[in-house]
Structure formats: C-alpha cells, structure tokens
Amino acid sequence: MKNIVLLVCALLLVCCSANRSVSMAGTYKAPEWSIPELVLARLKNMSVAANEHLDLKKDFTFTYSNCSINGSGHWKLNNDTLLVYFKKKRLIIDELNDDPKYKPATRCDSIPWKFFVSKNGTVIKYFEKRKNGRTMLVELHRY
Q1: What is the pLDDT of residue 49?
Q2: What is the pLDDT of residue 136?
C-alpha cells in the first residue's frame, strides 16, 4: 500500500510539472520602455532590450526575434527558470552572417539562455553581464 501511495504521488508530481511547462507556451514581448525607465536603467549601468519577441510553442520549440537577430530552438522549464536552447540564429542583415566579426552573435552552443519566470508566469527576465561592464536586461511580458 505504501508503494502505491508513493507511486501515485510521483505520478502526480510529474503530471503537474508537465502542465506547468505547457502553460508557459505563448507569446512574450518586451514592453515599451518610457524615457524615465531608460534613463534609470542607464544610471544603473544597464541596457534594456527593445523589440524582443519570444514565441514558446506547446511542442517545446520556440522562435525568437529582436532588432538584429532571428532564432529558433527548443525550451524547457526547470522550476522557476525557463531554459532556451538555440538551434539556429541568424542576423537580420544577411551579409553580416558570413562576417567573422559577427560569428559570436550567431553561435548556438549547449549553454541555454536562462529566463527567470515570475510566480504567475506572465513575466520572464534574462540578465547578461556584457564585456563592457553593463548588464543587459531582457524583460518579456506574456500577451
């Protein structure tokens, strides 16, 4: 009897976590930043992303775009962290894709982007420390 209870609990845990992942599926976009918000970010030595668009599909694939890059790959949810694995990244200005100077921007490696998910799942945030010392903030809201 004890084994059956443990088995049922484990099954419920797996089912509930899978439902949470599927419920993350949807379209996420960057908000329109106001001038005061942009100034405050600059004072905090931060950069904010604009024109970001992330579409998480129910089959755990995604498409991503911003003002300079289009990409796609797969995603998974690990507790309150959304892991985004790129399989393809291309610069919007096609001629730059073959320029060695821009190769790092299109590199797809096994290290995912890690978005932190809000408790209600409607806001996801990604922070990246840049070489210039600035912190890049990508904040996306579900639409």
Answers
A1: 73
A2: 80
One-character DSSP codes across the chain? -HHHHHHHHHHHHHHHHHHHHHHT-EEEEPPPPPHHHHHHHHHTTEEE--S-EEEE-TTSEEEEE-SSEEEEEEEEEETTEEEEEEEEEEESSGGGGG-GGGHHHH---SPPEEEEEPTTSSEEEEEEE-TTSPEEEEEEEE-
Q: What is the mean pLDDT of residues 42-67?
A: 89
Output the pLDDT for position 5.
43
What would the pLDDT profile of 2-29 be if each residue is shown by its tens digit?
555 444 444 444 444 444 566 899 999 9
* Cα–Cα dist 137/19, whole Å: 28
Side chain identity, residue 43: L
The chain-wide mean pLDDT, for the chain, equals 83
Residue 135, token pair as written in the block: 């912190």
- pTM attached to this predicted model: 0.76
Compute the CA torsion angle 85, 48, 70, 129 (nearest 10 deg): -40
